[in-house]
Write a structure and sequence with these properties.
Number of strands: 16
Distance between the termini: 41 Å
Largest sheet: 7 strands, mixed
Radius of gyration: 22 Å
Structural class: alpha/beta
Number of helices: 21
Strand content: 15-25%
Shape: globular
Helix content: 40-55%
Amino acid sequence: MRISAGELLEQLLDPGSFVSWDRPPVAVAGSPGYRDELRRAAELSGTDESVLTGIGSLRGRRVAVIACEFGFLAGSVGVAAAERIVTAVERATELGLPLIASPTSGGTRMQEGTVAFVQMVKIAAAVAVHKSAGHPYLVYLRDPTMGGVFASWGSLGHITFAQPGALIGFLGPRVYKALYDKPFPEGVQTAENLYRNGVIDGVLPVPIFRRIAHRALTVLNGTVALKHSPPQLFPAADVSPAASPVSASELSPVVDSARADIPAWQSVLASRRPDRPGIRDLLRHVTQRVLLSGTGQGESDRTVVHALACFRGQPCVVFGHDRSGQEGENTMGPAALREARRSMALAQELRVPLVLVIDTVGAALSKEAEERGLAPEIARCLADLTTLSTPTVSVLLGQGTGGGALALLPADRVLAATHAWLAPLPPEGASAIVHRDTTHAPELAAAQGIRSADLLANGIVDRIVPEHPDAADEPIPFARRMVQSIADELTHLTTQPEDHLLHIRQHRYRRLGLPT
């Protein structure tokens, strides 16, 4: 039985204690049809967006609360909802309050496309800053919690509990059926199963969670008092360009052969060519390389490559998807993401830049991946990358599907090949959600702003490295061109103070999707 945001607040907080923090949602560009959907959703749900935020008391203790409303467009998160969430997290951090988040959502709002998808980065970043400041973050997952919401702020809690019987998972069963023409295994994406497999801490109704949250905050309050809280990396008020010392030139993209005339579906098909160069082709053109393997803790994933390398004399750690290791349903799993986090830690320890290469059909969609914590690992990658102090470069080399791609995206500089793309789902999956078929995939690819040119225009990508006309037709010249572009970015980044780079990176993702 689904619990509305209002019912959650009534059962969780002391009677009459909740005070809303919400302002009218920020304006978001959209078609007349989408604006009609928003109006109807508000009328049906009684809320103006898919999330409510505010302050209340829990057994007399002041807490900040974020609660999704599934009745508003299936609790989906777009730019306006993300801005409301991040503003609440920052306010809780500024006030030194514990934060309780209760998502229930189908994931990214498909009507807003890739810009909505990338909002998960800034939510994860805000939560990471809140936690690094020493403030508790408690999560209560309601039925259902899926997709990017589960793979970001829904999986970063100090403690995480869930509603009994809740559907919780990375990819919805309908999309899986559309992509693979078979049903997802039953009983996997349930709160009880994830608890049995150690992904969450327990399964409780809201009244019992209220008691557990009170106990946890009593313990954590004592812990926090004993620790020195580090300063907030990114002030809550620092949202507008005028509030930041970052110069406009540092945030503006470098336009390099952004061909806006290429249809999105043409790029999708080009990125799927089996002869397209991948990460191993790039590594053949670096001056030095040492291949690494595994997490160092008994796991490895052959769909990724991990190496120490020199790009034109600049030492760095390289991690990325290996297109040659991906086939059918054999795609990156939780171990690949744990390898990614090993590469982040290694770059931090060695104090060298980190280069991330995105080229994936998507993260693994399987019983094993769900039970071994795929979504939480995506969330941890996002949190780690947005707080990493070493210089970072991310490269969209080909396909950029879903959370497996997003997990490697946040960086100081983001490069993209002409035919590279980024989307919350493969276009066929987006079509399955919106139209309940896969035949509208080319239409959805065009509508969602997934192309490199769209990503550049929306500030997700900084520079496009050209293909003449397709990397698969010129693999060696393209690989050399991309390696040189990476080297150029590293040369510039390594001259900048680390704290300055971190501030720019966090400011960049904080502003993403907001009106300029």
